């Protein structure tokens, strides 16, 4: 049910126009009655316009006001050749049913007051213009409140995570923190930025060995080909992908100058010249936030296919990208190489029919297991987990579609303690269903939405899990990795510092 009080301001106001508006509201009431919707109204005329109060037992204020606005404009235009200057909302109350109650206080924008009474939700507005009504702010707010309640109730539950496979326990020759010893030995150097390193020649040589094996044993066999994805996401990308709902605490935001000229920025340059300090507040005033640095790895790919219809015979599209970093503000803090803010990703992405995506998902899962267990000789476990976007919807993998979901591969890190301690996720592989193709409007020639999947990891996590179990002494490394690393580093001279 709802109550709404508003004022209609026609360009001209007299008895005939007042009657026309009253007759139009009566027509709207009769239409509601035909639909078994109870609707009552009061109307009075003042100098500044016609005041209307509506009470209804149905939640249909947006439709009612939008249709009323159109009818009045049409009728006044045809009969009197005038229009409405404005419809101004004075007061708006909504009461609707909810299936769950919040566990703690909720706040949402634009609403003056929220009330929860058992299975009822009441919203009170006092500042809401007619454009907000037409843009369905109220409906979107109710939907948001219900999602917030669902997330509150879901957050109290443990994330669904079921281990479905594990390798044999393997002898570990080392139990130190690789990041500490890598920095001590000059393989990496921490920068002034949180969770960021410069990676030296030997570290990079090991990374390249892993890339070679990854390509030979996974990508080449499945006929994946490399692409270069953008590392900056304009706002349109997270808005379509769904990340714009929640990404803000963890995003790296991108600001660009409103005006690109030395004259505009002279004060900033002068302040730095005199003080040696960066005037960040002034910089903020002179820039616009245009998007975020790549956060979830696969969304920047999707503009490549956005709005396209693809011939089925050319599918599946199998691609990967490791051309640059991904950025995440780790609110819980960074640690060594297993939790950094600038991570060098390996993103694997596949698009096709439902059957193709499910088949590739399963093949990739088995090939990743083989790669980490045999080629890198890592002690790992495989878990069936809930993808982030299903978590946000309050759905877990256990109760969801068996053709959609995520498998995580976790590695044992001896320096964290015994095997009962937390393991490190080093790889995931997902079937995302039609989530991204729907969001970016990507279809097959039959006009059916395609499916997609992705697999993500970072080179830092692979290296840290490998070195955590094998150590920096490459005599303990698997034969093929030792051979390639030795060849790649044979002419490197170690730097000496004084």
Structural write-up:
- This protein has 498 residues and is an alpha+beta fold.
- The chain folds into 2 domains: 2-155, Alpha-Beta Plaits (2-Layer Sandwich); 161-252 and 295-489, Bira Bifunctional Protein, Domain 2 (BirA Bifunctional Protein, domain 2, 2-Layer Sandwich).
- The protein contains 14 helices and 22 strands.
- It has helices spanning 15-34, 61-80, 130-134, 137-155, 178-184, 201-222, 236-241, 262-275, 280-285, 354-375, 388-392, 435-439, 459-470, 479-489; strands at residues 2-10, 39-46, 49-56, 84-97, 113-117, 120-125, 161-166, 188-190, 197-199, 225-226, 232-234, 253-257, 287-293, 309-310, 317-321, 325-327, 342-352, 380-385, 405-411, 424-431, 443-444, 451-458.
- Strands 7, 10, 15, 16, 17, 18, 19, 20 and 22 form a 9-stranded mixed β-sheet that branches.
- Strand 2 (39-46) and strand 3 form a beta hairpin.
- Helix 6 (201-222) crosses helix 10 (354-375).
- The longest helix has 22 residues, at 201-222.
- The protein is elongated and about 95 Å long.
- The chain starts with a strand and ends in a 9-residue tail after the last helix.
